Automatic annotation (TrEMBL):
Source organism of the structure: Devosia litorisediminis
Keywords linked to the UniProt accession: Oxidation, Oxidoreductase
Any Pfam family hit: Aldedh
Active site: E262
Protein name (Swiss-Prot/TrEMBL): Aldehyde dehydrogenase family protein
Similarity comment text for this entry: Belongs to the aldehyde dehydrogenase family.
PROSITE patterns with a match to the protein in the record: ALDEHYDE_DEHYDR_CYS, ALDEHYDE_DEHYDR_GLU
Keyword Oxidoreductase on entry: yes
Domain Aldehyde dehydrogenase per the UniProt entry, residue ranges: 31-486
The UniProt record lists the keyword Oxidoreductase: yes
Residues annotated as signal peptide: none
Alphabetized GO MF terms: aldehyde dehydrogenase [NAD(P)+] activity
Length: 496
């Protein structure tokens, strides 16, 4: 195995003990987090581990910036800074790509050309919104009153992001929060904090006032809980598991802070017999195995019409066995990288074993591969039924569950029979069916004859226990702003 050469800036970054980013300072902590490389299981970096007192300091820094240079900055200048940050990310896409390939394990080219590049695009989109957030003048019934609205920032926002897309998930939350004029305390996942810390340094370098973006890595039970419950935080934006989302909602009640949640999923993906079958097989394959199955929108429940099941399963197996799996920084860039951690790998493999015990047939993969690293072979389970745990629970790994169905009404009912509602999709050449199913599937995003498409302009979020709030498009500005109604009493002479 030949590894790609590290960018000198990345090497220097990894060799230094990374402190918390609070205001303009790097702050060391009483404890550190050892960041592991999931491709090798070796120590990658040491990062300060924030606790409650560090969250206090970061909130104070954010509050100071909100009442100071950031809060008084014009919307135009705010947009210019956000655009400048987008340019800086794109100019350093190799660095962001390497950091994500190292602590997440995903292939470097995907981390660079997808995650980093699309993060830059996300910031550019919301840079444009900064100067276009406006209130309304409302014609109220009393002629002696003048009424208008102001759209203002929520205040200090606590953002908690997951490990599956370390740079991109930060961009999804941070860009609209900044565009709306808020200041930020960010807690990235403890497994993948590196790109968030680098981004904070970059923001200061290009001119963001200190305290606008504070980054406090730490454990969920420490820094995460302190941030969710902090009375100086006005809003929490969280992406992660449904169970953690429930705890965040409970913690938010102390000051009734605003909360938006993007939580787990168990997306139904349906192939009808009138679809372009080869296109559907290819699209459905990557709907699950894209990002190694470590995605809340993964097409984990593949419903295949019984008349085409054998053809579809054969196509999935062929593709699964042809995939290249290996380290993210391997010079031979692979299709998939490792699972994020030993704990997550054990969880994935336990689901495979339980599925087989319940009667599913493992027709591809199902085992750990390679001598080092948390690698799991791309796995296809056939003969899955709705009651099996592999069909009901989020696995978050490269495990596809294939289920059969016979008619549209049946599969619609089964697809909706889940506590989750983040995404769903179908493959069909029947336009009426496409619109009919899109209207009736209970999920925040519906894909038809495609999978995984997102755009900064299009809203994204869940229904049911997949959360609430929408992360992109104009709806995201609403997540990070609040509307004030202003009434003026007019003198009679003002009405002439």
């Amino acid at each position: 195995m030949t590894l790609l050469a590290l960018n000198p800036d990345v090497s220097a970054f990894l060799n230094a003990v990374q402190g918390l980013r609070i205001g303009a300072e790097q702050v060391q902590a009483r404890q550190t987090i050892t960041v592991l490389n999931p491709s090798t299981e070796e120590r990658l970096a040491q990062v300060a581990c924030g606790e409650a007192d560090h969250i206090d300091a970061a909130v104070d820094a954010a509050r100071l910036a909100l009442s100071g240079p950031w809060g008084t900055m014009s919307s135009h200048d705010r947009g210019v800074l956000i655009w400048r940050l987008a340019d800086a990310i794109e100019a350093r896409k190799d660095i962001f790509g390497q950091l994500d390939a190292l602590d997440n394990g995903k292939p470097f080219t995907k981390a660079r050309d997808v995650d980093a590049v699309y993060s830059a695009r996300h910031f550019r989109y919301f840079a444009g919104w900064a100067s276009k957030i406006e209130g309304r003048t409302i014609p109220v019934s009393d002629p002696g009153r003048f009424n208008y609205t102001r759209v203002e920032p929520v205040g200090v926002c606590g953002l908690i992001t997951p490990w599956n897309y370390p740079t991109l998930m930060v961009a999804w939350k941070l860009a609209p929060a900044l565009a709306a004029g808020n200041t930020i305390v960010l807690k990235p996942a403890e497994q993948t904090p590196l790109s968030a810390l680098y981004l904070a340094d970059l923001a200061l370098e290009i001119g963001f006032p200190p305290g606008v973006l504070n980054v406090v890595p730490g454990l969920g039970a420490g820094a995460g809980a302190a941030l969710a419950g902090h009375k100086g935080v006005d809003k929490i934006g969280f992406t992660g598991s449904t169970e953690t989302g429930r705890r965040i909602v409970a913690a938010s009640t102390g000051n009734l802070k605003k909360v938006s949640l993007e939580l787990g999923g168990k997306a139904a993906n349906i192939i009808f017999p009138d679809a372009d079958i080869e296109t559907a097989i290819e699209g459905s394959f990557w709907a699950l195995f894209g990002n190694n199955g470590q995605s809340c929108t993964a097409g984990a429940r593949l419903f295949v019409h019984s008349s085409i099941r054998e053809q579809v399963v054969a196509g999935l197996v062929k593709r699964a066995k042809a995939l290249s799996v290996g380290p993210g920084m391997d010079a031979q860039q692979h299709d998939l990288g490792p699972i994020i951690s030993q704990q997550q790998m054990d969880k994935v493999l336990s689901y495979v074993g339980q599925g087989q015990a319940d009667g599913a047939q493992c027709v591809a993969g199902g085992e750990r591969i390679r001598n080092a690293g948390y690698f799991v072979a791309p796995t296809v389970l056939d003969g899955v039924t709705d009651t099996m745990s592999v069909a009901r629970e989020e696995i978050f790994g490269p495990v596809m569950a294939v289920l059969s169905f016979d008619d549209e009404a049946e599969v619609l009912q089964r697809a909706n029979n889940t506590e989750f509602g983040l995404a769903a999709g179908l493959w069909t050449n029947d336009l009426s069916r496409a619109h009919r199913m899109a209207a009736r599937l209970q999920a925040g995003t519906i894909w038809v004859n495609t999978w995984g498409d997102t755009d900064a302009a299009s809203p994204f979020g869940g229904m049911k226990q997949s959360g609430y709030g929408r992360e992109m498009g104009q709806e995201a500005i609403a997540l990070y702003s609040q509307t004030k109604s202003v009434w003026l009493g007019l003198r009679e002479s003002d009405l002439i």
